[in-house]
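Consider this record:
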Amino acid sequence: MFQAQGCGLSGDVVLRDCSHSDFNLIAEMERSYYREVDPTEAFDEREFQKEFKSALSDPKSNIFVALVEGRFSGFIWLDEYDDLGYITNIHVAKEYRGRGIGKRLLSAAEDYFRAKNKKRLQLEVVESNSTALNLYTRSGFKLTRYEAERDQYTPAGDYLEKSLT
């Protein structure tokens, strides 16, 4: 469990490992993401549940949950590949946005992957998600490539990367 102070919150941000009991809260955040950022793509809850269960049992994956004053406020889903740490998903609940939680989750990802001797941290963001893109660039991520719409299901997106060395 991690604890962070000074994030512009009245209480501390506590990060803990995710458990199966967090699924409904995380799935609701994913549904809201699709409604807000990518309404053309349908949220497949069965597929998401399968991926979630797999991540919880995979030693190369980890999901951290953020709590503010004991309330679920966000999560970050991490996967590792060779020398690369990958942020598969990060989400902060709407009512907690702009209060430093996303930055704290990114910092936890950096610490987690540095401890595992990863050299780079990478993520993907759809170009229409300007709030997230701004957070990532302010946190030191650099654009590595841009992909225009790849097919009818995958919107245009930016790939960003940050050195961990």
Q: What stands out?
A: The longest helix spans residues 101-115. The domain at 2-163 is CATH 3.40.630.30 (Aminopeptidase). The chain has one domain: 2-163.
